[in-house]
Each structure stands twice: as C-alpha cells, then as structure tokens.
C-alpha cells in the first residue's frame, strides 16, 4: 500500500498560519502531542470497559518521549488505540477543524499572540511549528489491522504507505527545524514536560535516544539490543508526572501533610499556607481544585499569586481572569474544569455564561469557607486575619457579591490588640467620635497620638497594609456617614482643654505664624494654636486626610508627571502649637529672644518626627541643634 496526495485544506497558506499563530508559546506542541497520546489511551481503555477490546493484564499505559540531539528529532510514542489507514485519511489528511477559511481570515493579520487559548482541533499540527518534517507510524488495536507510515514535510503534500511496525499505538517523529533545535536537548524537553504535563493521567517517560544508541552499539556483538534499551531507560525509571494529583482525590482522603507538600512542590513556596479550600463539584458542571491562602509576611510582600488552570489534568494557563475571579488571583492554587470551553478566544470567554457560573461558584465557595470560619472557628479566624485581610479586602473592592457576603465578617484590630467589626467600633465610640473611624498606620511613628487617644479613653484601628488606603475609600463609598481619619489627620476636640477666646486665637495665631515661618524658612506652613489638656505636649503636626491619600496614591502608582509632594508636602500640613505649653508661651512672650529661632525649629522637627521621618538634611540639623541645646545644661 503506497499513496500520495494533497492534504484536504481550504487554503495553501494554512501551514504558515499554524506555525505563526496557532499558539503563543511554541513549546506548547509538546503538551499537545502528549495530550493526544493520553487521549488515545483513554479511548482504548473505554473500549476495554465496553468489552470491545481485551486488555492485557499488567500492561502499563504510558507515553514515551525520545529525544535525540544528534539527529535533531523528537519522538512521541503511545500504546493507545492507534489508527487504521482509513482513520489516518480522515483525521490527518483532512485537517479536522471547522471553518478553516474563517480561522485564516481571523488570524492572518493578527500580531497579538494572546488571542488563542485553545487548540481548535489542531493539536497534531502544532508539530509543524517546530518541525520541517513529521512522520507517523501507527497501528490500530483492531484485529489484523495493517500498520501505517505517514510522512509530510510541512507543505500540503504527504505520502502514506504500509509500515512494518505492528506495535499497537502511535509514534510521531518530529525532524526539528533549525530555529527549534533547543527541543533536541533532553533538559529543555524535561522542563517543558514539567511545565505542561506534570499531572497528566498516564505515565510519561523521557528517554535520551543518543544514550540508547550508545548502549546498542556497545552490546551489538552480543545481540542484546532489547536489554540495552532497558538499561538505558533505567537512568530515568520514574515517570516525570503525577498521574493522580491531589485535587482529583476525595477531600476526605487527603491529609494535612499532603496538602502542604503539594503546595510547596507546585508553587515552590516553603512557607506554610494558612489554610486551603478543596473544590469538588460534579453538578451542574465538573470542577475540581484546591485554593491556598498563602501567608503574607509583611506589607511589602507583593499580592501576587498563581492559579493554574487545567483541563482534564492538562495544564492550560496561569491566571486566566475570565475564569478565576480577579481578586482570587492573589491566591495560589489549581482549578481543573473539563467542561470549560477552550476552543475560543479569550474575548469570547468574557461573555460566556458558563464561564461566569464557574467564576461565581468559586467566589461562593471562598466566601462560605471564610464566613464559616468566622462563625465556627472564631479564634482561628482571628489568628489568620492579619494575613487574610489583604485578600479579603481586595475581594470586597473588586467583587460586589463577595463584599456583600463578607460584610459581617470584616475585622479590625484596635489599640488593645482586640478584633472588632466596624459596627462594634462605631457603637463603642459613638459619644466621642460619632461616625469617625480613627486609624493608625505606624504605631511607633504615631505613638504620640496613640498615647493621647488612650489617655482620653478613645480607640483607633490598625491599618498597616498598602491595600488599606483603597479599602477605606471603598468602605466610605458604601457607608456615606462613615469617615476614616488617620490618627494624626486632625486634632480631636477631646484633646482640647479650656477653649481660647476668639481674640486670643487670632492674636496667638498671627504672632506665632510670623515667628515660626521666619525661623523655619517656610512661609506656606499653616499654624494652628490650641489650649491642649496635656501641657507637656508642645507641638503636633497634622495633615489632611484627603491630601495624604492622594500622596499615597501618587507614590503607589508612580504616576509620571505628578509629584506626590504636590498633595502631601508642607502645604497640606498644619503645625498645632499648644498655648498651654511653657516653650510655646516663651516664644509668644519673647519673640526677639536669643534662642527663639532654635526653639521654633526644634518644636517643628519634634512634631515632624512624631509623624514621619525627617529628611537627611533636616535630621543633620536636628542632631546638631539637639547637641547645642544639651550644651546649655552644662
């Protein structure tokens, strides 16, 4: 049997298009060819269960991948269902996808490689992205089936004839093109298999064919080729993949140690995850997976996770936001959804109702887990809260339904280290600060203000993460009567003693403004004079909440052309001077005094230090001035 012909396709330029646009990553051809081998084995086993094929007891179903740097070839061998000549004619010679012309028209002018995430039934043809020539040797499981040899050089011409290899299954050999010689390297192929095929359902073995040939040559005189082959394979006797990944198991059968080991192995994160959610759903769609909540050590840790998407244990992509709710991309985990429609563009995924249901289901499972912990394991929930908070807050900002479900389970740590909800905080302080929520971003830097609050029996919440700025703005939007103020944003009336008269306020403010602005050298600084209860406190620095938030946003996004000092500099700061303090009184009564400038500068720097670090230049001056002042005591 020998046959030659032309592939049945709708355009002669299909192969250039396959090579350039079929997949964004050329290494993905390894995934496709191994996946095809797995499919062939699955089909055979199903026939066995139906009684149409008699399985051999003890036979290992597997995929062997042979790599040869010498010949610049890759060969994929499976012992699956195989193909007859008629099936090769149907499935190989007629490119099996619908709308070839539409496909060509859609993608021939595209430059964005991210347009396609599926295979359009073209998995086998991905081989031509890296190969000048491809051959197939295949033999069907059917009794007395004739083996077939097929060859194509990447054009539209092929040749097909009877083969002399009657081993059941299929062997596909790629003769790599010059640009793709990297895939003739054993370690490069191993890397790609680990990337895409680490959890495929049948064992995958990688065999260095060059080493195999060396063994054959050594033992040729003794006619031990088969033995040599086995010896060569002993170098890598273990499969590269895990055929029964943890997410495919029943949660009841999984141990805590297994969950942690899986997390550390897959994500190379050796910190213990806080906890995890095992997803296991069969109706109305098939979805399995594990979502891990990783531990965030500091506010400087990036909120960036990895959700790996699988389809029947075949890796598809990381972090496909159309499937995974955006805020959950901060987590780490795996999602396996065989029902997911992958043969479409990502833009279509966004509007797919089924995909939306998957996303909503995942969100619901996460909110159910968190709310359940808060209700039934409150101590554990509080223990995890500081690490959980960034994820949950981001979720509330990005997902209205999630926010609604989590409203009653959002916690805030107060100055005593206890966790309270927003309603609890407002209720406890309704007489002293009405609907204001005071917060602290740095307990050490803002300790002066913290002590003042404690002395007055007032409370504040601790918000130290960089997501808190956006989160409190979000909360204010949902609660119009609630206003968040940093503890040093303004001077609460609770700290003021006997009020100054209007005349005193104007006199003191005018006089001290002139003296301090001149001494400090800043005529834009705002001066405010109050009679504070604590006479030991000489000066404080406040900054409007709006200006600070704007400055924080500028810093976070590093917006070009925008200077954060425009919003957070001295123009928005207010120096509060305590008229009850003896140093301030001295300045008031001795405006021309010898040491007034020194006192003014020192009081200003002390106020700044209680609010934020001094600049290098200001710190140098502050240290020198402090030494000079101490010298007066000698």
Could you characterize what this model shows?
The chain folds into four domains: 2-233, Histidine kinase-like ATPase, C-terminal domain (Heat Shock Protein 90, 2-Layer Sandwich), CATH 3.30.565; 246-387, Ribosomal Protein S5, domain 2 (2-Layer Sandwich); 411-487, 3-Layer(aba) Sandwich (Rossmann fold); 497-543 and 562-631, Heat shock protein 90, C-terminal domain (Four Helix Bundle (Hemerythrin (Met), subunit A)). Helices cover 40% and strands 18% of the residues. The chain is built from 22 helices and 21 strands. The strands form five sheets. Strands 1-6-5-4-7-3-2-8 form an eight-stranded mixed sheet. A hairpin with a 2-residue loop joins strand 11 and strand 12. Mean pLDDT is 83; it is low at 96-104, 110-120 and 560-568.
The CATH class label of the largest domain is Alpha Beta
Helix content: 25-40%
Helix count, DSSP H or I runs of 4 or more residues: 22
Strand order of the largest sheet: 1-6-5-4-7-3-2-8
Question: What's the end-to-end separation, in Å?
Answer: 112 Å
Number of strands: 21
- The CATH topology of the largest domain comes to Heat Shock Protein 90
Return the CATH architecture of the largest domain.
2-Layer Sandwich
User: Mean pLDDT across all residues, rounded?
Assistant: 83
| Sheet with most strands | 8 strands, mixed
Rg (CA only): 35 Å
């Amino acid at each position: 049997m020998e046959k030659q012909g032309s592939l049945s396709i709708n355009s002669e330029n299909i192969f250039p298009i396959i090579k350039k646009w079929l997949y964004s990553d050329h290494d993905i051809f390894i995934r496709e060819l191994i996946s095809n081998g797995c499919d062939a084995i699955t089909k055979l086993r199903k026939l066995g269960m139906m009684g149409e094929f008699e399985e051999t007891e003890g036979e290992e179903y597997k995929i062997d991948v042979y790599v040869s740097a010498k010949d610049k070839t890759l060969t994929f061998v499976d012992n699956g269902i195989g193909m007859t000549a008629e099936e090769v004619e149907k499935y190989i010679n007629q490119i099996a996808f619908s709308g070839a012309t539409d496909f060509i028209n859609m993608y021939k002018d595209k430059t964005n490689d991210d347009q396609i995430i599926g295979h359009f039934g073209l998995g086998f043809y991905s081989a031509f992205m890296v190969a000048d020539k491809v051959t197939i040797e295949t033999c069907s499981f059917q009794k007395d089936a004739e083996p077939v040899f097929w060859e194509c050089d990447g054009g539209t011409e092929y040749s097909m004839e009877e083969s002399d290899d009657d081993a059941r299954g299929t062997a596909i050999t790629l003769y790599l093109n010059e640009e793709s010689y990297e895939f003739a390297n054993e370690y490069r192929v191993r890397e790609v298999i680990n990337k895409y095929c680490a959890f495929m359902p049948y064992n995958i073995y990688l065999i260095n064919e060059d080493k195999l040939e060396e063994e054959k040559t050594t033992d040729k005189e003794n006619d031990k080729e088969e033995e040599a082959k086995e010896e060569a394979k002993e170098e890598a006797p273990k499969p590269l993949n895990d055929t029964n990944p943890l997410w495919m198991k029943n949660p009841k059968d999984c141990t805590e140690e297994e969950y942690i080991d899986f997390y550390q192995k897959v994500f190379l994160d050796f910190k213990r995850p806080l906890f995890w959610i095992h997803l296991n759903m069969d109706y109305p769609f098939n979805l399995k997976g594990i979502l891990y909540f990783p531990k965030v050590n500091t506010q400087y840790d990036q909120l960036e996770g990895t959700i790996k998407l699988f389809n029947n244990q075949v890796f598809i992509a990381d972090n496909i936001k159309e499937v995974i709710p955006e805020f959950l991309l901060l987590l780490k985990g795996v999602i396996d959804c065989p029902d997911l429609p992958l043969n479409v563009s990502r833009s279509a995924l966004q509007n797919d109702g089924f995909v939306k249901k998957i996303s909503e289901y995942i969100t619901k499972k996460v909110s159910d887990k968190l709310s359940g912990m808060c209700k039934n394991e409150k101590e554990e929930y509080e223990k995890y809260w500081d690490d959980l908070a960034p994820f949950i807050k981001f979720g509330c900002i990005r997902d209205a339904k999630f926010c609604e479900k989590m409203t009653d389970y959002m916690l805030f740590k107060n100055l005593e280290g206890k966790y309270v909800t927003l309603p609890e905080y407002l209720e406890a302080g309704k007489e002293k600060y009405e609907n204001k929520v005071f917060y602290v971003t740095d307990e050490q830097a803002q300790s002066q203000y913290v002590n003042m609050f404690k002395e007055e029996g007032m409370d504040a919440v601790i918000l130290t993460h960089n997501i808190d700025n956006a989160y409190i703005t979000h909360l204010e939007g949902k609660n119009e009567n609630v206003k968040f103020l940093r503890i040093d944003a303004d001077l609460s009336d609770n700290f003021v003693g006997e009020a100054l008269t209007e005349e005193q306020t104007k006199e003191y403010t005018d006089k001290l403004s002139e003296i301090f602005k001149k001494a400090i050298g800043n005529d834009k600084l705002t001066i405010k004079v109050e009679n504070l209860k604590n006479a030991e406190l000489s000066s404080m620095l406040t900054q409007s909440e709006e200006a600070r938030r704007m400055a924080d946003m500028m810093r976070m996004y590093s917006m070009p052309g925008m200077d954060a000092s425009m919003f957070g500099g001295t123009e928005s700061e207010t120096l509060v001077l305590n008229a009850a303090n003896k140093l301030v009184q001295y300045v008031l009564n001795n405006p021309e005094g010898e040491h007034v400038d020194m006192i003014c500068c020192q009081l200003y720097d002390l106020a700044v230090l209680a609010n934020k670090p001094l600049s290098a230049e200001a710190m140098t001056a502050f240290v020198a001035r402090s030494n000079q002042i101490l010298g007066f005591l000698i």
